Amino acid sequence: MADHDQHPAHLPECPSARGSGGLLPAELHAWMLLLGATGAVEQRLRAVVKERLGVSHDEFLILCLLATQPDDGLRMTRIAELLGRPKTRLTYQIACLQHSDLITRASVCGDKRGIQVALTEKARRLLKEASDALAGTVTDALGEFMGPAQREALRGLLPDLVAERRAEAPDPAST
């Protein structure tokens, strides 16, 4: 198990990784910090996903993607594109999910090679039941692995998003 006192939020910043005045431009520095935070979240999620849903992290990503789609799901080629996965690996993961009765596969009408994948009611129920624990895991991991320097670097990468959130936030003085 990792030593939680040695995570990025508490380590001194590496001089060569600074966004300004270092070797990396601010955008690349922010992207590297985002990748680090994402890796930390994935590490934490793996155990919770396995415990709550009984699937691998990669299979979980497929379920999450399908959960954002209409009931008829997505074609396998589109899932592969969106997740950046090779189609051969995706075929194996889809087979595992189908074996667990979490997804359905159907031929696309008029296209012999096309396969449409959709969530089952069992998958929808499991995702709903696990959503609070999964969301809490993400929030906790980001809070632990992203210190003030990381958050500021990401704000620089997404200035429009930060401005939108500030505009949407209720005025504390008016409450």
Automatic annotation (TrEMBL):
Q: Which SUPFAM superfamilies match?
A: Winged helix' DNA-binding domain (SSF46785)
HTH marR-type domain location is: 27-163
UniProt-listed InterPro entries: HTH_MarR-typ (IPR000835), MarR/SlyA-like (IPR039422), WH-like_DNA-bd_sf (IPR036388), WH_DNA-bd_sf (IPR036390)
Q: Tell me where on the tree of life, at the top rank, the source sits.
A: Bacteria
The identity of this protein, by name, is MarR family transcriptional regulator
